[in-house]
Amino acid sequence: MLPERRREAPHRLAPAGPVYSGVLPRHLYVHVPFCARRCSYCDFSIAVRAAVPATEFADAVGAELRLRHPGRDPWELDTLYFGGGTPSKLGAEGVARLLDTIRRRVTLAPGAEVTLEANPEDVSVESARAWRAAGVNRLSLGAQSFDDHVLTWMHRTHDAGAIGRAVEAAREAGIADFSLDLIFALPDALERDWIRDLESALALQPTHLSLYGLTVEPATPLSRWRARGQVREAPEERYEREFLAAHDILTAHRYGHYEVSNYARPGHEARHNSAYWLGVPYAAVGPSAHAFDGSRRRWNVQAYAAWMARVAEGSDPMEGDELLGAESRALEAVYLGLRTARGLHLEPGEASQLQSWLEAGWAELDPQGTLTLTPLGWLRLDALTEHLTVLRSRY
Ligand code: SF4
To answer: Which residue, among 46, 44, 26, 24, has the nearest Cα to 35 in the 3D structure?
Structure first.
């Protein structure tokens, strides 16, 4: 059976996670749900607001942190990540206020990575200077495409020119570490030139790139368009062609393909997301935020109003949690290892059972017994993960 390819949703966060037991996590995710409008492909937990209630939100984040992590024991972070939604919609003062609130409970370790997801139209020299002064040292820019026709189809709120202006403004403000998000495998009818978009991105010299294949999620404008026959997904061959072309072009430009969807210049790998992929504990606050304490995952209610109401009355905004059993842990260990260039250490005797992967060019095995997937293997990540997990379950 030919394994199925792996697709990742745009902006999709890694599997998340908990109720904290013991040591405080070194990583904190804050979900900022505000967006100007919903993009055509997006099923994230967002709150569309013409005027963003930045003060109300910062206060609620502070309340959830106090509720979830009471006490005065020192809590130091290596990474802090503002994701969304569109955190840059908080503006210059809103981000500073939020960081100020968070710092009442945590301290940032020297050299901590502080990332803000931003839409290009929100980045000006003034806003970027304020973010940097508040502690932000890395931006993740939702570029998606450099084609105005495509951006309009996606319901994005920026045009192609805004991406370059945002990069220039960030650099002028002293933030040189930035990532660009791009989406590939768009419907044929859009006639999007993927190679030209990659070249436009490279011309801006980002330190990091995240590339996601378009997926049709339920209850999105895109799924309605598909149901009405107005749009068809890109064929499999083009998905694979664009994924592999990106690998060839970006690695030729000295970007390491260090995770199935992520590329970085040496030393600029995303430390926060890498914590997810290493399976270490992380805290998370905000609507729909997922956290993990090393054994248990927990996730908050999705809707902004419901999350606000719970936090305001001093009750836990958790919607659910899950203790990872032996089976889930085994599956996760395989999945997290295979999705990164770090790879997975094979158990004695396993290599001989995975010979077909090596022969097909889906994986490579080093002399120490570490198996890493090739780009061809990453196109089949889900199926290969399942295959190896089933093999291991038989021991
Ligand atoms: S800006 Fe990001 S989070 Fe907001 S609707 Fe668009 S894709 Fe979704």
So the answer is: 46
What is the token pair recorded at 40?
A: 């055509």
CA of 129 to the centre of ligand 1 (A): 24
Residues 172-221: tens digit of each pLDDT: 999 999 999 999 999 999 999 999 999 999 999 999 999 999 999 999 99
Cα of 48 to ligand 1 centre, how many Å? Answer: 10
Beta carbon of 141 within 6 Å of any ligand 1 atom: no
Measure 365 CA to ligand 1 centroid, in angstroms: 39
Is any atom of ligand 1 closer than 6 Å to the C-beta of 42?
A: yes
Write out the H or E segment, with its range, that includes residue 262.
Answer: strand 262-264
Nearest CA to ligand 1 atom 8: 42
- The residue nearest atom 6 of ligand 1, judged by CA position, is 39
User: How far, in Å, are 51, 60, 86, 127, 143 from residue 47 at the CA level?
Assistant: 11, 15, 10, 22, 20
Q: Report the chain's C-alpha Rg in angstroms.
A: 21
Enter the tokens of residue 84: 């969304």
CA of 155 to the centre of ligand 1 (A): 9
Report how far apart the first and last C-alpha atoms of the chain are (Å, whole number): 22
Rounded to whole angstroms, the Cα distance separating 8 from 6 reads 7
Q: Are 356 and 382 spatial neighbours (Cβ–Cβ below 8 Å)? A: no
Give the C-alpha distances (Å, rounded to integers) separating 166 from 119, 126, 128, 183, 196. 9, 11, 9, 19, 19
Q: How many CB atoms lie within 10 A of CB 268?
A: 18
pLDDT at residue number 143: 98
% of the chain exceeding 90 in pLDDT: 89
Give the per-residue pLDDT at 71.
83
Q: Is 87 in the pocket of ligand 1 (CB under 6 A)?
A: no
Cα(95)–Cα(88) distance, integer angstroms = 8
Backbone angles phi, psi at 305, to 5 degrees: -60, -40
Decide if 39 contacts 156 (C-beta within 8 A): yes
pTM of the entire structure? 0.93
Q: Report CA(41)–ligand 1 centroid distance (Å).
A: 8
Nearest ligand 1 atom to the CA of 155 is 6
- Determine the atom of ligand 1 nearest the C-alpha atom of 38: 5
- Take atom 5 of ligand 1 and give the residue whose Cα is closest: 38
Q: Which helix (H) or strand (E) holds 381?
A: helix 381-393
